């Protein structure tokens, strides 16, 4: 059964695989970036080399997502957790309210954090009632009229679900896209704010990117911690303080790789193909189970269970020998999870499918 | 005059040079960490490989600084700017006060940020009166009795000054050691909290380390943004959210390098030798000037001026041809600055001294 290969495929949910060509370039330039005699890691964030890296990566993410000029794009340090506080603090004044759709652990965390500072925020959907297998249609939700924004997590890493559509709402839609940004085409103009921690489809952890409709960047009545204040970061062109320079460089390489791949329409097709291969293998089998309805299946995180959970540890053990790393499911959900972000090559998915069949044959 | 060498010496104030042996290891392991088939950048922060990296780096920084068990050590995302808010929020309740010694731009920023949330904090020293060339003796300062802590910046990157001594105060002493942590021996027990952004003596930017006396980690009356709450990070062993994993790995390599060098007593001797070489060359000359009194000269950042500032741009231009990068002074101070952190080899300082003499000979 063991495959004779040195290539490991890493199905971790994040930090996750990065595109092989990106890693190659980064290694080659690691000690000496473009004959500067320095690593990007060693460069001043105020110097010409880094400014060029920063400018280029911002231009390229704008290109990839076709971001209108009416949106600001900033890099922040920290991941989504930092943004869970930034969002209400940058968008609400005291006693104001916002509407959170709770489709999983991360939207819940965002909601709980907002509630600590703005007790009037409300939940408009509770996925717990369906064990988080369901995702509502945004237009079906009843959003209180005085809500300043509606908040969603576009893709739920843990439960393997996603919003398939993002209709235009009458209030700003705020989306945590940490686990599916840059995986599919997107109409940015449907959103007030899009943010994402980098560690899944963008680059190393410790960096997040925020895309903010400019009219939302206005003064708040209460003080905001300077590091969480989007206006400060935006005004300084993401250089108010020393940003995570190396992570921005890596993100820039990922953006270039995506553009060379043909942009988001191309990567979306590849991602759909990869996801179909896995879901089809699961659907065809009586040995594996999935709980997510077709319409809301994530194309980034495929969550599945073995019918016989006694085989779980065997499955993980054998998959690792097969060169497939990180398939164990999230602790609260159990079962398995295959995270197949942009960087996962088709070959990795094919190996997974072949392992699924092989394992079933031997243990069914 | 030009030196025939490919080796560049990088005198940037930060992000700054990293130790050459560390960069070599990091490059070698970049694509495949210890036969895992993955880059450290691609590994789950919940997996065994990363946990071992994290544990080892925490053990090693404890060893280096001989940190007592009564102190917690945590990694946070972001640099010192995030901590400027964390400090008062984690240490003060509403209307309480703390005493800030303002010896430069960074202590001023920390003070201004604290004042936005705790208007009762006070300044106990204003370096502006001496153009920031002076550093007070801490025991000379009159600290209001109700102050919950005293705050200092141990080394001022911009002005090239430092506190030479850290006496034990009756209230917790909080020190921003971003630009001189790990450069000299230190009695941690003199401090309530030590924190440092990584990008000078620790590793890549986007990471900070906090060393906190455990008794200071108690509940506050007001809510603290989760990402700024030391207790949350401490309780989760720096894994509450996805930390900047690659930066922690790099920091760990730097700690190991320092231990191999013989620890802080050894690096301190080397740093003193390097700083003396530069200061002596400046003191011996009529062509260059320094403003910092002997007792408070930083051994990390040597700030100096050419007597004739018309030669400044010439100096920078020629130094770059000489393989010396980043000598231009901070924008508000002018002149020159040589940042000679732990990673700057003696050879780099010798080349700088040789350039100082050569330039003077030709332009005096």
Explain the overall architecture.
- With 364 residues, chain A is of the alpha/beta class.
- Chain A has 2 domains: 24-260, Aspartate Aminotransferase, domain 2; 263-363, Aspartate Aminotransferase, domain 1 (Alpha-Beta Complex).
- Helices cover 34% and strands 17% of the residues of chain A.
- Chain A has 9 helices and 14 strands.
- Chain A has helices at 20-29, 48-65, 80-91, 105-117, 230-235, 245-260, 263-284, 312-321, 346-363, and strands at 9-10, 71-77, 97-102, 122-126, 147-153, 155-156, 161-162, 173-176, 193-197, 207-213, 288-289, 301-306, 324-325, 336-339.
- In chain A, strands 2-10-9-8-5-3-4 form a 7-stranded mixed beta sheet.
- In chain A, a hairpin with a 4-residue loop joins strand 6 (155-156) and strand 7.
- In chain A, helix 7 (263-284) packs parallel to helix 9.
- The mean pLDDT of chain A is 96.
